[in-house]
Amino acid sequence: MAIDMRTVLSGEVAKLALDYDFSLTEKDFGFDTNIDGVVFSKPAHVNGEIVNMGGYIGLTATVSVSYSAECARCLKPLERDFEVTFERTVVNRGELVNTSEDEADDYIQIVDGMLELDSVAAEQLLMEFPMKELCSDDCKGLCPKCGKDLNEGECGCPTKEIDPRLAILQKLLEK
What we know:
Strand content: 25-35%
Helix content: 10-25%
Number of helices: 4
Radius of gyration: 25 Å
């Protein structure tokens, strides 16, 4: 969403409230928003404010999203919510002349009086998104031999397996 910053820049308004939704899947942000095994069930929601404090313009926002995924151990379907809060300094385009690339990530640039926040919000959300999901911290997962969900009980498969390289020694012990 493009936010009109002209009223803030002119001093007419000192604070702008943010409260809107945007799609993570229908828009081209210039980076991939697909995460393997994750389906975003609703649009992402941005809530926050832009405040002009005597020429210093600060942005504080919280981005939240609902999604479905699978447990990384037992493959049970999960429905989860995730949110991340971030802060940035808002500057006019061209004000970041002597800024390194690392420092430039702390700023959002106003271009032609408009602030494009969706790509920054999406990037922040995806950078902090969990790499894997578990249905519980003590999830036992699936049996690697028969595939039974070990959270529902033992499967009966042998738990000890002899290393095939040492199997010949087992035959010696049996004699």
